[in-house]
Amino acid sequence: MELKAIQSMADTIKARVGQVIVGKEDVVEKLLIALITSGHILLEDVPGTGKTLIAKAIAKSVQSGFKRVQFTPDLLPTDLSGVQFYNQKEGEFEFRPGPLFTNILLADEINRATPRTQSSLLECMEERQVSVDGETYMLERPFLVIATQNPVEHQGTFPLPEAQLDRFLFKIRMGYPSFEEGLAILKRFRQDNPLDKLEPAVRAEDIVDAQNSYTQVTVHDDLLVYMLELIERTRRHPELEAGISPRGSQALLRAVQAKAVLEGRSYATPDDVKAMVLPVLAHRLIPAGYRQDRHAFSEQLLTELLQSIPVPTEAQAAGG
What we know:
Layout: H1 3-17, H2 25-36, E1 41-44, H3 51-61, E2 62-63, E3 66-70, H4 77-81, E4 82-87, E5 92-97, E6 104-108, H5 115-127, E7 129-132, E8 135-138, E9 144-149, H6 162-165, E10 170-172, H7 179-188, E11 202-203, H8 204-213, H9 221-236, E12 240-242, H10 246-262, H11 270-281, E13 286-287, H12 294-308, H13 313-318
Parallel strand pairs: 1-9, 1-10, 2-11, 3-6, 6-9
Antiparallel strand pairs: 4-5, 7-8, 12-13
Helix pairs in contact: 1-2, 2-10, 10-11, 11-12
């Protein structure tokens, strides 16, 4: 697929989602970047800000499989992956797939499940496969996990471990709508739910083609050095227990390439890097000692590091 075709496809999905969601263009763009790069996304905010709605709107805009799982403390790993059951008629065991066998999975309130159930997502998010009773089953492409969690209500929740957070390409917050957006929401949902009328804009095969093609975006060596300098500084920073891993640096590169595609370019720029640093890297940092608002601390630290690193203007001028 040509890069221009990927941009056109993304614009079509944006338009469809915009029939339901008021504003939040930045969140929609990051969801599309996650979809194009085969990444996953963690939406975090207080209840009622539209986390589940925007995930459903993205899913309905793509003609593909969609499953929603409400995570609870009694949810078991087999409730996600599936089970082997004995078929009395055939006289043998058969595998009954769980909700993981879909294209877009909405994991609602993921932090309400136990660590055992949360860890069952690690293999499918990273390897795109599920292992049950010694058998390995491959998941179909595209495969996107959109997880949500409530950051203010901690009773009965289990914080995601670092290994789980590192599997998410983005961790972002929805935020409250502005006054004008709030008024538009009330008008739009006054009579019915526009989500019910939403029609698919693209096929799953189109997403797979985009996933195979977006890496055509050129990234200048100076831009790679720019990204790696930032990552190296997080590894040496005295206020951090752990910096960005190689998985994090690769995630940043993929996000930068997809961002360039959505901007209509075949090359990446320093502005693409600056736009992707916070949502891709902030949740991967581990501060040294206790921090009341860890995510805010990580974002501030990354912002300061970005300001201290010279921007590779040569790569910008050369157009990649």
